Amino acid sequence: ETGVTQSPTHLIKTRGQQVTLRCSSQSGHNTVSWYQQALGQGPQFIFQYYREEENGRGNFPPRFSGLQFPNYSSELNVNALELDDSALYLCASSPAATGSITGANVLTFGAGSRLTVL
Amino acid sequence: EDKVVQSPLSLVVHEGDTVTLNCSYEVTNFRSLLWYKQEKKAPTFLFMLTSSGIEKKSGRLSSILDKKELFSILNITATQTGDSAVYLCAVEAATGRRALTFGSGTRLQVQP
Q1: Nearest to residue A25, comparing CAs of A66, A74, A65?
Q2: Which residue of A has its CA nearest to B45?
Q3: Residue B90: partners with Cβ closer than 8 Å, 6 or more residues away
């Protein structure tokens, strides 16, 4: 069973550019969520994808967009990069779109993509 | 707006010490509270708590939830250098999505 894999691991962009980050979910997981983690802060929810549709969004502007593919992998796209977009972007997958009190479908995180915007 | 506050922000202890990490929260329609350990990049799951007063335990780590006072603690006994990490607390509301609200974390450093 493979875990959540993300690419690239590191990248550097300049203000105004666009970036695409990729995520392969854990085997058997159909739901992918993206989080932004600034230095010294906890992860912040960007959005979640389930069955190729956005299923919930955090407090992020429309220049943050995503896709989920039929194999449940996902992309995060950020347009018009700003300096404050510099962060670790974490992808997490789970076997269901909603939580469960049994703990059977907790989020499994990837190692993240470190984005630096200059 | 859901909110999670963790304390202390950072902590330095020596091997063998016992530590207690705190997490207080505000969430509409609570479903669960989760603890994660983040050593380098990927947060790894430790515990999920849904009921008050029931201790979850895994080796030297344990955690408990108080839903009346809206807080949780994570205890680590006989700390080892491998316990050095950022410990993240998160809450999940009972909505139709898996959105966790995280605290800023507690950075634990265990010295030999």
Answers
A1: A74
A2: A108
A3: A42, B4, B33, B34, B35, B36, B100, B101, B102, B103
pLDDT per residue over B9-66, tens digit each?
A: 999 999 999 999 999 999 988 989 999 999 988 999 999 999 888 999 999 999 999 9
Residue in the structure block whose two tokens are 């974390």 = B105
What is the residue-wise DSSP string for chain B? --EEEEE-SEEEEETT--EEEEEEEE-SSEEEEEEEEESSSSEEEEEEE-STT--EEETTEEEEEETTTTEEEEEE-S--GGG-EEEEEEEEESSSS--EEE---EEEEEE-
Tokens of B74: 């994570």
CB pairs below 8 Å between A and B: how many?
A: 80
* Beta carbons of A71 and A51 less than 8 angstroms apart: no
Using DSSP's 3-state secondary structure scheme, residue A36 falls into strand
Name the closest residue on chain A to residue B39, using Cα atoms.
A111
